[in-house]
Design a protein that fits this description.
heterodimer; A: 164 residues; alpha+beta; Alpha-Beta Plaits; 2 domains; five-stranded antiparallel sheet; 4 helices; B: Rossmann fold; Rossmann fold; 3 domains; six-stranded parallel sheet; 20 strands; 37% helix
Chain lengths: 164, 565
Amino acid sequence: MRHAISVLVDNQAGVLSRVIGLFSGRGFNIESLSVAPTLDPTKSKMVITTSGNEQVLEQIKKQLNKLINVIKVIDYMGKEFVEREMILVKVKAKEETRAEVLRIADIFRAKVVDVSSNSYTLALTGDKGKLEGFIEILNPIGIIDFIRTGTVIMEREMHGRRKL
Amino acid sequence: MKKISGAYAFIEALRCEGVRHVFGFPGGAVLDIFDAIMDADDIEFILSRHEQGAVHAADGYARASGDVGVCLVTSGPGATNTVTGIATAYMDSIPMVVFTGQVPTHLIGNDAFQEADIVGITRPCTKHNYLVKNISDLGRVIKEAFYIARTGRSGPVLVDLPKDVMKDTISFKYPDKVEMESYCPTYKGHPGQIKRIVSLILKSKKPVIYAGGGVVHANASKELADFAHRMSLPITTTLMGLGAFPSGDPLSLGMLGMHGTYAANMAVTHTDCLVAIGSRFDDRVTGKIDEFAPKAKIIHIDIDPTSISKNVKVDLPVVGDCKMVLQGMLSQIKEGNDEVKTLNKSIKPWLKRIDTWKREQPLRYSKGTAIKPQYVIEMIDRLTPDNTIISTEVGQNQMWTAQFYKFKEPRLFLTSGGLGTMGYGFPAAIGAQVAFPDRTVIDIAGDGSIQMNIQELATVVQYKLPVKVMILNNGYLGMVRQWQALFYKKRYSHTSLEVSPDYIKLAEAYGAVGIRVNEPSQVEDAIKQALSIKGPVFVDFIVEPEEDVYPMVPAGAPINNMLLV
């Protein structure tokens, strides 16, 4: 089961290494990872997507909490949340496929961020499923290169029902 | 306020933490600290002959006294030599602070002489670690290091001190308190859960307590004994828990697991309510995990949430300090309470069954013409005072000591349980002797293990530490040989120690006393003689070469599947 976990940590040298080391040392899996400082510059927030059964996930959360520099761990499983990831894709765009690439970009609401005589570079934001669909559609045309950020995630504000 | 150097501030910080003994070894990066140590008359420094010896000594000091052990070494190789000792302490949750020198901050990352990224290296085997880059952080970091080491699930903390930070100056004031948002261990168990534990035990017919090192760390032996006696619950302990409950008590089943007693392993296999207190379901305890305590509701009391439901699924967990949780449990049951009386009565057939197991299959060994190692340990047990501190190395010597030495109190048995570090026992005994100069301290060793830190003979002679080392000399790496005999068709691949030193001459070469014992009839007198000598003694018992440790559960088998003698 795929889980997205956000981890609030002290913004200090070596903290990322502690978190990563924990995953590798205990044989847990990291699918994606993104890290950046929060509004409070002494803290950073990480979002880790991982997978495992209930027992493994429980261990991951407990082990993360045990790290001295970890302040808070939130598992988004079972919560209402928004999830976004970004991808940059460089696609072959010869005479006969240029229009097709633009059409696909339009359907997915991707942006053209670079263009050359034989390629387009497209930027797209969305959840994991949307990005994977995009890659799947573009693949037959010829993907030269792509890069994805890790997932970022935020709990939905449920108006009038509960607070974040 | 007068400005002082980082090195003097460091000494001041140790003083504020109440440190009286530091184990270590000097070097280039810590010259300033060692210069400052010369002026600190109230802190005794013990010079080991290898950094591994220093860190194990700090560990032994901590286990025996309950205080934080302190170790100070230089950068690079000095620091890397402590890694085994730190990992040993980490696995057994021993409170320790290791200070390592580091190259000056401007050289960090330059592959400087004697540079090692010790913070990176020890990240997975410390509870936490620090690199002090600025002298203004020094006081806070040391304060936090000691606080983290001794609180919660205790453990080793490493602090890396660059040379220029130790030379820098500061108006130093050691902080009064620690402020850490992200670290707040849970001590008080959930009251509802504590109630549920008691009612589950009261409803059970065949309960067993399985107590571990956590009881020792929490100083909860008295509460454990009170609870067990009031409810008449039988207790088995782990290797780390030996001494947490007096082994002579009728409710004591001895150790469980791979080399546990028949009664303990059978009781755990047949129990309907297993009460784990400060123990972590280690594979050496559980054997085949699916068949461990298969009929039991499992209760688990532990200060570390990650220990709960890590290896086995727990029915009733409580996160908290063993002492406080046991006090909570005790307050739920009053002596003479009807429910307790009912349990005391209904448990009788179960206790009777356990007694039968004890009687049918006691720990035993056959007598022979050669000295039996188990006999040596029985004699040591008989001839030493009750407050004797025993350390062991790792392997057969360790298991025989666990089986045949009858520990009556906690903090008397120092052994590397989790990591299984050969070479641990001798330096650990040094640490314990420093903590308790007037007590008898004995390292029970094998001829394989003792050679791993034998250089510390110089330390015991220099500091006049009367540690007694009892070598069970069988000419083999005995435990590995035993596995080869049982599971590898007696193909003794590199387990025969064909060349060994003459331990008598070796002890004498360092200025200690050596005694050799060849006959069973000489064992008693040799131990008496060793105990009567004021200084350090090596006693070399030439024992039966191919004696095995029994009972034994083959690796991966359920624990009721024991090879008995």
